[in-house]
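agent> fetching stored inputs for the fructose -6-phosphate docking request
agent> found them:
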Amino acid sequence: MCGIVGYIGENQAAPILLEGLSKLEYRGYDSAGIAIFNEGHIDVAKAKGRLKVLVDKTNNGESVPGTMGIGHTRWATHGEPSDENAHPHVSMSGRFAVVHNGIIENYISLKKRLTEKGFEFISETDTEVIAHLFEYYYKGDIMEAVIKVINRVEGSYALGVLCSDYPDSFVAVRKASPLIVGLGDNENFIASDVTAILKHTRDIYYLEDNEIVVLKKDGVKVYNTDREEVKKEKFTVDWDVSAAEKGGYEHFMMKEIEEQPKALRDTISPRIKDGKVVLDDISLTADDIKNINKIYIAACGSAYHVGVVGKYVIEKMCRIPVEVQVASEFRYCDPIIGENDLVIVISQSGETADTLAALKEAKSRGARVMSIVNVVGSAIANASDDVIYTWAGPEIAVATTKAYSTQLAVIYLIAAYMAEKLGRLTDKEYADFIAEIEALPEKVEEILKNKKEVQYLASKFYNCHSIFFIGRNLDYAVSLEGSLKLKEISYIHSEAYAAGELKHGTISLIEDGTLVVALATGRELFDKTVSNVKEVKARGAVVMGVTTKEHDHMGDVADHVIKIPSAHEMLLPSLSVIPLQLFGYYVASNKGCDIDKPRNLAKSVTVE
Ligand code: F6R
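agent> prediction call returned; pasting tokens
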């Protein structure tokens, strides 16, 4: 939630900041602002609405000259989207301007105290207290003020701070919210995410909690809270700038759907050597695996749906009990976990507040935590005992597709790895399973070649009021994702149901013409789901069936059938989810929705 950028160099800062913010808009897009240092004072421009409003208001930054500045794109938490609540926030004298990503949990008490001391607030945000705190603590030494401010505030923050007394530098600091430093040639940057600065530099520093950065045009220094300089390791981002560009696609979402075969290859190939799963990334030994009492999976949204698949797959293949829980619930349900339990947390961004909190909860109870994360160096990756990265590349569209698919691939690798260590598979079963995992990218490619078929169906159904997704076992797990994909970008009401459960109440919602998407890919439960299809058909539903090429009978009961290639039963979710992603996309496209930035959402959810 919220994206921040900062620039100091020889060029005009505002256009660079606006360009950087355009890459961060996926993090929030209800208002935006910039603050630029110019001839001894700080000029601020901000506007409610998409970044475009600010771009127009400032004539693409030309009306705010200066070579040092900070910028922000917001997803409202404290206070509605408005010009006043937009960042940057400025201290009363105008000496400090602050951009912030995160939540200041004790802002109410701080606001009260600052108000008593005569500070006046013009916004409803938590961030404004930071601007005033800087003013309050500043006695001519910015570093001292930073340390006092971060000692005083509770919560999460990535902060960029301009001080008009410092014409040649600005400062930044983070705790639990992401912030990287970009190292350029006579110019330096801060950003919530590398995509914002990739056009200018690939050399970056990742920051630890409470490391304070002082950025000048010709150098960057990082300090700890004892004011000692910290030597940082420089990382070079190796992915191409085009990875974060639309590259001719109308939307990032379609680009990312199409990127799935590559993302799957990048995630799977390095981890299969000589027909065996090799997880160099983790330190879990065969003995550790044998001693696992129970596995918990905690995640949010689509990542949670990956966990639901994971439960079926790991339990079936490893015979270890698995409990999946939405991360926001996990934390507060007094989970019964201990040393012999493994907690797997799944997160694309690696910064989802609820997932991070679940991780901390698990660790505090002595469990070992393994995470599946896409963003290198993110808070969740840093806090885990073991991390397995999904190599999906940057995912910009708010609705996840390639991250979901690569998370699923990692679940399969973990299941195969554990099952082998536990001696649960014969050599042949293991070899077949591995070969089938390796074949997934090609099969996904095959489905994508036939996307016109799904596009046609979407054009028939985009006016529906409500769409149901049903399936059993793994098909149910994928139904959850198909339903979420559709509703979050097309705004059509949708529910996913275990196919056998519908008749216990929800079937009363089925009437003439209601669209039911029925997944029946598995062999064992195919006939059972077909019976459920007949039940909804008898009540007037129009049915779109999703099944594999080996099932001919779906056409006898469903009105429309989408076929996917056959695969190992456990791996079918990787294939059946693809037409559902496409369906959601095309329905939203037919409705003219803002596919990459659906209303009310943001890509990374750093609030509880
Ligand atoms: C839906 C979607 C979200 C995320 C969820 C978790 O398309 O993208 O439901 O899956 O917010 O985010 P991460 O994976 O970043 O923890």
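agent> quick read of the result: Residues 300-303, 347-349, 352, 355, 399-400, 484, 488, 604-605 surround fructose -6-phosphate (CB under 6 Å).
agent> awaiting further instructions
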